[in-house]
Amino acid sequence: MSDALLTSPFLGLTLSAAAWCAGCWLQKKTGLLLCNPLLVAAALIIGVLALFRVPYSAYALGGDFIKLMLGPVTAVLALNIYNQREILKENFLPVLAGCLVGSLTSVGSVLLLCRLFRVEEALTASLLPKSVTTAIAIGIAESQGGVGGIAAAAVIITGLAGAVLAPLFAKLFHITEPVAEGLAIGACSHALGTTRAMEIGQTQGAMSSIAICVCGIFTSLLALFL
Amino acid sequence: MSIMAQAAIVFGLCLISEGIAALLPVSFPASVIALLLLGLLLFSRALKPEHIQQLSTFLVANMAFFFLPSCVEMMEHAPAILRQLLPFLLVVLVTTPVVYGVTAWTVQLLVRRLRGRGVRRHV
């Protein structure tokens, strides 16, 4: 029977949905920033897999279905952008300038720190695209000689940091313009940060969605010259 | 429009985007091509927001959930990351606020400067 359970995609799907609900419940109950549903759910699943000695590949049978949906999820962000088209028209120049500066800073600061700490080349290449969304990051990392999985991990940790700390960053840097706040969240922490930006406000959410797209393009282009 | 029709539109766009990505001479993510295509269809009014509204609302409202498998996958790469944990965490956690700060400041200054100029022009 255990074979049937381990080869069924429903294992990954059930675990994911149940752990997600538990994560959301805990966030509501505690109200703590660190009890991010994604963080809690991932820890729960990793714990369950380790406890019952289930290999990751068994979870991935179902998990891959969910991962596949990242494509459509990214695509439909176009509707958020469309719904905020007036603000986009008004701020066309700041959007372009902000995303260009953001992409350059991201790639530049990673390169600088990696050189400073004499980080291995393969890890450096995996960290380079950490501020762009997973699908883009894996492609860039692998074309630079990095490891896709490590790049994805860097993207997720960056995204979590952005999603959890975004309100704190706004206070720290004295950011009061919604357009600036949204673009910065999207530029530094992609779609995962955008989930938080949408909670902060509609303008922030739309600007963050735009930043995912524009920074993704800029970073992909930048990677061609590295 | 029925939810399945909406799904057909969005999945179809993703399919076409993968085809386009395969044709491009450089590696470019299909999901961003799909975002651009959908944006193009919406802005050219070939597609109305109602055509994808319900599906979009559902997907975007649960966006973080779709990152869950990638999060769990980190476990697979734990040995490689743990070997260089300190530089890994340092790079990720130091550069994130730096990118936020630089981007936000650039945009905020630009937005205020442009607005200031606009106000003067109206006066």
| Oligomerization state | heterodimer
What's the tally of helices of chain A? 13
Helix-strand topology string of chain A: HHHHHHHHHHHHH
Largest sheet composition of chain A:
none
Class based on secondary structure composition and strand pairing of chain A: mainly alpha
What fraction of the residues of chain A are assigned to beta strands by DSSP?
A: under 5%
Order of helices and strands of chain B: HHHHHH
- Fraction of helical residues of chain A: over 70%
Name the biggest interface. Answer: A-B, 109 and 71 residues
For the record, the count of structural domains of chain A works out to 2
Helix content of chain B: over 70%
Average pLDDT figure of chain B: 88
State the major sheet of chain B: none
Low-confidence stretches of chain B: none
Q: Quote the distance from N terminus to C terminus of chain B.
A: 48 Å
Quantity of strands of chain B, as a count:
0
Rg of chain A is 18 Å
Query: What is the percentage of strand-forming residues of chain B?
Result: under 5%
Shape of chain A from CA axes? globular
Separation of termini of chain A? Answer: 51 Å
Summed up, the helix count of chain B is 6
Please write out the topology.
The complex is a heterodimer of chains A (226) and B (123).
Chain A: H1 2-6, H2 9-30, H3 37-51, H4 56-68, H5 70-75, H6 77-83, H7 85-90, H8 92-116, H9 121-127, H10 134-143, H11 148-172, H12 178-200, H13 202-224
Helix pairs in contact in A: 2-3, 2-4, 6-13, 8-12, 8-13, 9-11, 10-11, 11-12, 12-13
Chain B: H1 3-23, H2 30-43, H3 53-61, H4 68-73, H5 78-83, H6 85-122
Helix pairs in contact in B: 1-2
Describe the structure.
The complex is a heterodimer of chains A (226) and B (123). With 226 residues, chain A is mostly helical. Chain A folds into 2 domains: 3-68, no CATH class; 76-223, no CATH class. Chain A contains 13 helices and no strands. Chain A has helices at residues 2-6, 9-30, 37-51, 56-68, 70-75, 77-83, 85-90, 92-116, 121-127, 134-143, 148-172, 178-200, 202-224. The longest helix of chain A is centred in the middle third of the chain and has 25 residues, at 92-116. The termini of chain A are far apart. Chain B is an all-alpha fold and 123 residues long. Chain B folds into 2 domains: 1-61, no CATH class; 79-123. Chain B has 6 helices and no strands. The model of chain B has no long low-confidence stretch (mean pLDDT 88). At the A-B interface, helix 2, helix 3, helix 4, helix 5 and helix 6 of A face helix 1, helix 2, helix 3, helix 4 and helix 6 of B.
